[in-house]
């Protein structure tokens, strides 16, 4: 029996009872399998083990019998995610591609269900911190793996784990952009020097991996996020010195064809890939105009749809944009809810950061809210050119935002600081089963 397969199987079968008796740990295990995808790095029987199913089943069963606080905070973001799911579910009646719709809808429903389970269980700062660490290190593994591959002379393109949401080069670049700020800002609150150095290492090697994916959209998004990070860090001189040092060390490993590929941005009309994306965007717009309230349903971007709605019916491409994907598949109401969810989450993260600014006891919330905000910036920019509107990591960051607010409000209430805070509850601490209400 291959050692990797045996190890994955051991983790799974040891983790299932833990997930049942301690469902919060089940959330962490589910996130690890979802983002690290260790079973996809095997070559034997473990590669196709339904690890997510077993872990989710044990976690939800544990949730039923959980004696702690398992209320789902009813916030704007939770309501908007539910509303977006409702709009996606209309496709049961209207989908252009019924068979493909069922597969995508089922996957999307499972994602949101587990996000809600996570939000209902994560109620302490330590549990929240652990979930952030699992996500950051899982994606960080592929950032480090890709950089090492390139530094050892690897040629070609860097891809994510096969069978995962981010198996493609564009998907991996997007995932790294979404956790890249976490590496730096999590280090602020890490007291152990070796862990802090590890986070800094992941932060500085991630740009090389994004370069090696040869994703132009990911390179653009990293530049935008990096610029915002630079404006927000306090020690800008040190940031510049470390940035220049990292660039000098990593520059020899950047392949020459990457520079050639980046130059095609200036001549995009001559690039078949770029023109194919624009053709797909036109198709999405035409489909939404034709079916403005419902769109074509999830998984609508088929060859038949492109042939019917695109200016060039012979040039088939996927949506290649989270915005046009939602527009084409869920119509104008779906796009509106999707955008409001994104903007609402970013606004809440900014508010958390403002409330916690200057308070050393709340520095954890300030740093993690800032990192999550920048991760969403990466998603918003990178996603404009990648069709990953239903990417589980995006909804995970939204769920983490809800958890940040919930834990922050709870801590402020216990320390009696809420009376002077914009997070003061609108009523007294609610009884079990009642709605958690805040002013936000």
Structure description:
The structure is a single chain. With 440 residues, this protein is mostly helical. Helices cover 68% and strands 0% of the residues. The protein has 17 helices and no strands. Helix 15 packs parallel to helix 17. The protein starts with a helix and ends in a 26-residue tail after the last helix. 46% of the residues are buried.
Would you kindly provide a brief summary of this structure?
The protein has 440 residues and is mainly alpha-helical. Helix content is 68%, strand content 0%. The longest helix has 35 residues.
Name the features.
68% helix, globular, single chain, disordered C terminus, mainly alpha, 440 residues
Largest sheet: none
SSE order: HHHHHHHHHHHHHHHHH
Helix content: 55-70%
Mean pLDDT: 90
Rg from alpha-carbon coordinates? 22 Å
Derived from helix and strand composition plus strand pairing, the structural class reads mainly alpha
Q: Any chance you could write out the topology, listing elements then pairs?
A:
Layout: H1 3-21, H2 23-35, H3 51-65, H4 76-89, H5 91-94, H6 98-121, H7 125-151, H8 169-187, H9 193-212, H10 216-232, H11 236-250, H12 256-263, H13 272-290, H14 303-309, H15 322-356, H16 363-382, H17 392-414
Helix pairs in contact: 1-2, 1-3, 2-3, 2-7, 4-6, 4-15, 6-17, 7-8, 7-9, 8-9, 8-10, 8-16, 10-16, 13-14, 13-15, 15-16, 15-17, 16-17
């Amino acid at each position: 029996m291959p050692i990797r397969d045996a190890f994955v199987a051991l983790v799974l079968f040891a983790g299932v009872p833990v997930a049942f008796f301690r469902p919060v740990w089940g959330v962490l295990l589910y996130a690890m399998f979802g983002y690290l995808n260790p079973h996809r790095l095997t070559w034997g029987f473990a590669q196709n083990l339904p690890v997510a199913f077993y872990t989710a089943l044990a976690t939800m069963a544990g949730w039923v019998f959980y004696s702690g606080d398992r209320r789902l905070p009813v916030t704007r973001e939770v309501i908007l995610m539910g509303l977006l799911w409702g709009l996606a579910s209309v496709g049961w009646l209207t989908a252009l591609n019924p068979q493909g719709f069922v597969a995508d809808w089922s996957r999307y429903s499972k994602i949101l269900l587990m996000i809600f389970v996570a939000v209902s269980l994560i109620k302490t700062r330590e549990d929240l911190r652990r979930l952030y660490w699992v996500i950051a290190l899982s994606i960080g593994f592929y950032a480090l793996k890709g950089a090492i591959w390139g530094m050892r002379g690897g040629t070609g393109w860097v891809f994510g784990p096969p069978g995962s949401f981010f198996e493609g080069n564009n998907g991996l670049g997007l995932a790294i952009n979404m956790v890249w700020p976490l590496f730096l800002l999590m280090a602020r609150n890490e007291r152990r020097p070796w862990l802090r150095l590890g986070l800094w290492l992941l932060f500085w090697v991630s740009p090389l991996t994004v370069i090696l994916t040869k994703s132009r959209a990911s390179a653009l998004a990293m530049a935008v996020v990096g610029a915002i990070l630079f404006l927000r860090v306090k020690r800008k001189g040190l940031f510049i010195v470390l940035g220049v040092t990292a660039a000098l060390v990593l520059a020899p490993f950047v392949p020459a064809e990457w520079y050639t590929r980046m130059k095609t941005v200036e001549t995009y009309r001559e690039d078949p890939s770029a023109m194919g994306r624009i053709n797909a965007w036109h198709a999405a717009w035409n489909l939404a105009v034709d079916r403005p309230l419902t769109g074509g349903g999830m998984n609508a971007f088929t060859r038949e749809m492109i042939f019917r709605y695109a200016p060039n019916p012979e040039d088939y491409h996927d949506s290649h944009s989270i915005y046009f994907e939602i527009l084409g598949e869920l119509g104008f109401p779906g796009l509106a809810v999707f955008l409001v969810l994104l903007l609402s989450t970013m606004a809440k993260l900014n508010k958390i950061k403002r409330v916690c600014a200057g308070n050393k006891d709340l520095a954890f919330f300030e740093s993690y809210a800032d990192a999550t905000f920048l991760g969403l910036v990466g998603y918003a920019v990178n996603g404009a050119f990648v069709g990953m509107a239903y990417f589980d990591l995006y909804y995970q960051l939204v769920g983490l935002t809800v958890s940040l607010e919930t834990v922050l409000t709870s801590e402020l209430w216990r320390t009696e600081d809420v009376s002077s805070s914009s997070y003061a509850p609108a009523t007294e601490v609610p009884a079990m089963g009642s709605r958690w209400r805040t002013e936000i």
